[in-house]
Design goal:
The chain has three helices and 14 strands. It is an alpha/beta fold. The chain has one domain. The radius of gyration is 21 Å and the shape is globular.
Length: 182
């Protein structure tokens, strides 16, 4: 205690302490998405193409709830630069992590989703191209969403068999859908 004050600091020091407290209490997902907590009552909010692309980077969020808040344009993502959502290798014991949450398009559209599927690694056990889409593998629910001008295709030089390729979903195991339009 100094001069009868419990916190002997000035306005600048108090502002810095307040800023540190506020930032440390903010969920990391708020920085990734446009808000929300990922629950049914408070879904993660997606406003931009960047936020949509971010979903594919955080597999720990693939069992959460998302709500699209605006029409978005993915034309900035070319080749295989977009981070697809969900993953499935198909054989028992292999890595399998589908999107098992809820993605509500809220009546909005995703335009110009373009993805060129890269060739498999020649050393890989699987020598075929399979399960590709904006959502690679879904066991959850996608609803109230439209895709405008999607384009997904294997690399032109690909000589491998192509299986389960779709603009929206590559593979759907026990998935729900409603109100979708392409």
């Amino acid at each position: 205690m100094r001069d009868g004050k419990a916190f002997p600091c000035g306005r600048i020091e108090r502002a810095v302490v307040l800023l540190v407290l506020v930032t440390s209490l903010s969920p990391a997902a708020w920085a990734r998405y446009g808000g929300g907590a990922g629950t049914a009552e408070d879904p993660y909010l997606i406003y931009t193409a960047e936020q949509m692309n971010t979903i594919g980077l955080y597999s720990q969020d693939w069992d959460k709830h998302f709500l699209l808040m605006a029409d978005i344009d993915l034309s900035a993502y070319q080749g295989d630069s977009f981070n697809l959502i969900g993953f499935h290798r198909g054989h028992p014991g292999w890595f399998d992590q589908p999107f098992s949450g809820v993605f509500d398009g809220n009546g909005h559209t995703i335009a110009n989703f373009t993805y060129v599927i890269p060739n498999p690694n020649p050393q890989d056990v699987e020598r075929y191209v399979w399960r590709y889409g904006l959502f690679r593998h879904v066991s959850g629910e996608i609803r109230n969403l439209g895709l405008v001008y999607p384009n997904i295709a294997p690399a032109p030089e690909s000589r491998y068999p192509k299986i389960q390729i779709g603009a929206l979903v590559g593979a759907a195991g026990h998935a729900g859908h409603a109100g979708l339009h392409l």
